[in-house]
Amino acid sequence: MIEKMDGKKLISLLNDLLYIRLVEERIAELYPEQEIRCPVHLSIGQEAIAVGVCKNLKKDDLVFSNHRCHAHYLAKEGSLKKFFAEMYGKSTGCSKGKGGSMHIIDLTVNFMGSVPVVAATIPIAVGAAFTLSKKESKNISVVFMGDAAIEEGVFHESINFAKLKNLPVLFVCENNLYSVYTPIHLRQPKRKIVDVVKAQGLECYSVDGNDVSAVHDVSKKAIDRIRKGKGPAFIEACTYRWREHCGVNYDDHLGYRCKDEILKWKSKDPIKRLKENMMSKHMITQREIKEIEEKIKKDIDEAVKFAKSSPFPDKSDLHKHIYD
Amino acid sequence: MNETSVTRVYVRMSAKKGKKRKLKFFEAIREAIDQSMEKDDSVFIIGEGVPDPKGIFGTTLGLQKKYGDKRVMDMPLSENALTGVCIGAAITGLRPILTHQRIDFSLLSIDQIINNAAKWHYIFGGQLKVPMVIRIVIGRGWGQGAQHSQNLQALFAHVPGLKVVMPTTAYDAKGLLISSIKDNNPVIFIEHRWLHNISDYVPEDYYSVPIGKGKIISKGKDITIAATSYMNVEAIKAADYLKKKKISVEVIDIRTLKPLDDEVIIKSVKKTGRLLVLDSGYYTGGFAGEIIARVSEKAYKHLKSAPQRITLPDLPTPTSPGLTKYYYPGYSDIVKKVLSMLGKQDVKVSFKEESVPLDKPDNSFTGPF
Q1: Residue A101: its chain B contacts at CB < 8 A?
Q2: B69 vs chain A: nearest CA distance in angstroms?
Q3: Digit-coded pLDDT (tens) for A251-293
Q4: Cα(A295)–Cα(B73) distance, rounded to whole angstroms?
Q5: Are residues B113 and B87 in contact, defined by beta-carbon separation less than 8 angstroms?
Q6: What phi and psi, each to the nearest 5 degrees, are found at residue A38?
Q7: Residue at A154 is within a domain
Q8: Domains and CATH numbers, chain B
């Protein structure tokens, strides 16, 4: 896939992958300070799906997410300062300090929100697509979910309705093989997720979720098709979470995932793969990568500084926003 | 309860006595939807059976013909997803009306109602609003039983972020539904099946009745009765009966459970010194308890006797009329309770057998639902 892409596009993909990775690593670094006082679900290891999909989206396309939402927000170009401020519970946060890590939003880029109840945003994304369809918009609605969302009834209800009404919605399943500590084989029978969704009549795609250019190409195909009015599509992208389900640490010592499996997936690190691939083709140098990283780190420094120096919400904000 | 007494009750409750046109409650609901859709293109209605020949007890009849199948829609039996779909439509600029023929069916969507509809505005710091109405029908009688006639208004009223509206009269049904559709928040709009066929004066204009306001529907000085939905009908019957015994009852239709207008009740209790609450829901954790708690907190010193409540017992609804006659409270229970609260247990009372059996709203009702 990489062969077909121009250098500029690849650098942009690499930049976005590094951006998400470095933001997440900074959260991990800061978390022990106990100033980020909310549960966090890091996207480290899974960045390629968010980046590959969102690279094909326009600003007016809508994105909905779940508890593991940072990558999606950042890939949709949500404000970094407001993101960090929200992590710190500040009034300048993207949700004004009422959401924390699991409820983030940036309407200026149409990142429409994330909530942690599994599968909860799936029908909401379908509803947003219903509005787009009613307005005869060329934009689409995208919802990211994990593999456990497939087990929820509301997922099946939602794809049924999306297909029934031929709605412009893309369902992206990030299959990282685990729901908290529970492996997929204890939750789902041995069959392909895409086969289940295909049976509902949706256009389905499977892709290596750790290959950003492959995700990019597959989602381009899916998104172009949706934009042409051909109805909803579903992508299953296989990937792997590196750190604990919730929190910033590694939890390999718990033994719920075997060492070989962890090593195998780490060797498929989407960033390492893209970097090596690009360097082997002389599309980028180590030094240039370093420069990208430094630039990102500077942005993160600024965002963290902004977050830390922002005020907490006022007591009077507690009762605001219960009703419009 | 025969047609004459019902009409008399409703005429007394009616707000605009000058207006001569009478409409049944279900027709008032339909007119509210119709006028709202006419005024605002972003309003649509969806629900199981909305365009079918029965049209949700007549409340949606003819609407699809007028507005087309893109705005008046049937839906898959996917209550949870379709609630989420309506939330998604609402946050992106539409005004959905989702309709459930039974409150029991809405329970399949409790995740989306409580986790998302109620919270989407607050958790994102007020950046998105959720202007949607969830119409829910509750009921009693005719063997509907444990899963077709629950009264779970307290469940919804417990959840921050929801508004809960329960009109009693056709006039209020129209005005409150119009307000609910115009409201930028999720409104649980609860209709009692036994009110659907009762007539009232209803103006033809597009008018609204404010959410969050209770209303005195019968003035009195000896005791305050605050009631929800259909229980107002029983309250008025009891008040009429007690009037003959020289007891003056003030009846307050609560109308909105959340946000609750406790002021109107407290003001009345300050005058009467006594409070009886009637709710069509259950005893434990029910809404009657909430009213009593508020009045006890805010007007304790004005109370001449302990506040009381009449509710359903803490039991699932049985189906046999042999059992439901002991299950549902009626006006005679209210009369007896009021007399005991006033220390007038010795007043002789006798109740004629009702001309309408206890498991029917009126004689025109012949089942099946």
Answers
A1: none
A2: 12
A3: 999 999 999 999 999 999 999 999 999 999 999 999 999 999 9
A4: 52
A5: no
A6: -155, 160
A7: yes
A8: 3-201 (3.40.50.970), 215-341 (3.40.50.920)
- B-chain CB neighbours of A67 within 8 Å are none
Kindly report, residue by residue over B83-134, the tens digit of the pLDDT: 999 999 999 999 999 999 999 999 999 999 999 999 999 999 999 999 999 9
Q: What is the pLDDT of residues A170-186, one digit of tens each?
A: 999 999 999 999 999 99
Residue A54 located in a structural domain? yes
Strand order in the sheet with B249-253: B215-218, B249-253, B223-227, B275-282, B308-312
Q: How many CB atoms lie within 10 A of CB A59?
A: 10
What is residue B210's three-state secondary structure?
Answer: coil
Contact B78 A323 (CB under 8 A): no
Give the tokens for residue A9: 């596009």
The strands making up B187-192's β-sheet, listed across from edge to edge, are B72-73, B43-47, B95-100, B133-138, B187-192, B163-165, B256-258
Contact A98 B123 (CB under 8 A): yes
Q: In B, which residues are within 8 Å of A128 by CB distance? A: 88-89, 91-92
Given an 8 Å threshold on Cβ–Cβ distance, is B184 in contact with A323? Answer: yes
Q: Given this model, what pLDDT does residue A312 score?
A: 98
Surface-to-core class of residue A143, CB atoms within 10 Å of its CB (0-12 exposed, 13-18 middle, 19+ buried): buried
B343 touches chain A (CB under 8 A): no
Q: How many structural domains comprise chain A?
A: 1
**Domain contains A316:** no
Among B231, B256, B198, B230, smallest CA distance to B27 is for B198
Using 50, 70 and 90 to split pLDDT, how confident is the model at B6? very low
Given CB atoms, is B88 within the 8 Å cutoff of chain A?
yes
Please say if the pLDDT value at position B7 is more than 70. no
Task: Read off the pLDDT band of A3 (50, 70, 90).
Answer: low
Write the CA distances from B4 to A36, B10, B362, integer angstroms: 67, 10, 11
Concatenated DSSP letters of B211-250: TT--EEEE--SSEEEEE-TTHHHHHHHHHHHHHHTT--EE
Q: Which of B100, B121, B148, B196 is catalytic?
A: B148
Structure tokens at A184: 């997929």
Those residues whose C-beta lies under 8 Å from the C-beta of residue B159, and which sit 6 or more positions away, are B113, B114, B118
Domain that holds residue A233: 2-308
Say how many CB pairs under 8 Å bridge A and B. 138
| B158 counts as catalytic | no
CB neighbours (10 Å) of residue B182? 17
Q: Do B81 and A157 touch (CB under 8 A)?
A: yes
- Known catalytic residue at B196: no
Residue pLDDT, tens place only, B170-185: 999 999 999 999 999 9
Q: In the structure, what pLDDT confidence band is assigned to residue B1 with cuts at 50, 70 and 90?
A: very low
ipTM of the complex: 0.97
Chain B residues within 8 A of A113 when measuring between CB atoms: 120, 124, 128
| Residue A321 placed within a domain | no
**A101, pLDDT greater than 90:** yes
pLDDT in tens, A36-60: 999 999 999 999 999 999 999 999 9
Cα torsion A109, A244, A272, A22 to 10°: value is 50
CATH of residue A223's domain is 3.40.50.970
B80 vs A98: CB contact, 8 Å cut-off? no
Do residue A105 and residue B128 have CB atoms under 8 angstroms apart?
yes
